[in-house]
Amino acid sequence: ETKARTREELEQNISVIEECLKTFSTYIPVHFTDRPEEYSKYWAIRSGIFPSVGGTRQPGTTCLIEDVAFHIEDLPEATADLQQLIARHGYDDACIYGHALEGNYHFILNQSFSTDAEVKRYEDLMNDVKTLVVDKYDGSLKAEHGTGRNMAPFVKYEWGEAAFETMKAVKQLFDPKGLLNPGVIFNDDPQCHIKNFKPLPLIPIDEASPAEKVNKCIECGFCEVNCLSCGFTLSSRQRIVLQREISRLKQSGTAPERLSLLEKQYRYPGNQTCAGDGLCSMSCPMNINTGDLTHIIRQEILPKGSLGYKAGNFVANHFAGVKSSLRPVLSLANFGHSVLGTKAMSSITKGMHNVLGVPLWT
User: What region holds the 4Fe-4S ferredoxin-type domain (predicted)?
Assistant: First the structure.
């Protein structure tokens, strides 16, 4: 990738790059393009690196991404050192990518926090990353991403006592009570990055089921662009997040009140408003269809032979007749709305929803 202010300058840049690359044996010939139909595919591949690497992780582990920056002149040596550092700590499935033109790299790795040994491995990795970036190359531990708790323990180390205290003082002026993102940038705990890990429990699903793929979800949100209910109730990603929490509470046996509340609150935004059409899978790098998960949940709520199942089966087999019979019902509802008004009808339908479980949109 290269950029320029004018077409002539751009072509000159390309010529220089191509000349430099002639000394290397490349897998395919070097080719630059300004055609959207071509470079959009390359960008799609690039955008899919993070979720694709995360999707290959062992279920129950966490996909992490960090970004660091080096001076351009140090980039070749720094790249090799970063690769060796990650490999030395045993992250064989890690990936480095990003914006080399700006000296900015992302590195992705899959990490388990289930044992003290794994937590220690991650702690050692981050300490070595700090030393490599700050001490050896005078780089930046943060390039374009926010600092976050993962890098918060190293902010003072990178910037020094004076700059650190100045930044804290500025934040204090705008946030004297410490309400804005407490501990995310300024944190006095040197081990805050290895505490309070977000659990990623497995959702218990038969391995033969298509829905088993949901356990590969890294919660990247790529699916949300195609989710019909995103912004209305829950997105496909949020459904998986909530089902993971429900699974965790079931497996741990803790907080039964919270579990009961979550299951109740999930019914409408999580279950009843999911279209179940699988559109989410079209933009998911792992082809995860959250609709498959919703179908399983619905089967558990209405098992074969139950009254609800029989009613649904009857409707499916007599759809034309049912549709015709609903027309006067809708006319009656419209008449009631015109007589009672919106406020009264809203109260009635809300009451029916709370008592009978009738979806609000009816």
Answer: 214-288
Residue type, position 310, single letter: K
Measured CA to CA, the distance from residue 233 to residue 360 in angstroms comes to: 12
Instruction: Please answer whether residues 337 and 345 qualify as being in contact, where contact means their C-beta atoms are separated by less than 8 angstroms.
Output: yes
Residue 158 vs residues 4, 104, 232, 312: alpha-carbon distances, Å:
33, 17, 43, 62
Residues whose CB is less than 8 angstroms from the CB of residue 76 and which lie 6 or more positions away in sequence, other chains included: none
Q: Helices 256-266 and 236-252, interaxial angle, to 10°?
A: 150
Domain locations along the chain = 60-194, 212-301, 307-356
Q: Tell me the CA distances in angstroms from 171 to 165, 168, 174, 190, one per residue in order.
A: 10, 5, 5, 20
**Strand ranges in the chain using DSSP code E only, listed in sequence order:** 62-69, 95-99, 104-111
User: For the purposes of burial, counting CB atoms within 10 Å of the CB of 38, is it exposed (0-12), middle (13-18) or buried (19 or more)?
Assistant: exposed
The distance from CA 129 to its chain's CA centroid, rounded to whole angstroms, is 24
End-to-end CA distance of the chain: 52
pLDDT of res. 362:
52
Give the Cβ contact number of residue 332 at 10 Å: 10
| Phi/psi of residue 89, nearest 5 degrees | -90, 5
pLDDT at 97 > cutoff 80: yes
What predicted TM-score, i.e. pTM, was given to this entire model? 0.77
333 or 139, which is more confident?
Answer: 139
- Per residue in 105-134, pLDDT (tens digit) is 999 999 999 899 999 999 999 999 999 999
Percentage of residues of the chain with pLDDT beyond 70:
99
Q: Which CATH code of 1.10.150.110, 3.30.70.2740, 3.30.450.20, 3.60.21.10 fits the domain covering 60-194?
A: 3.30.70.2740
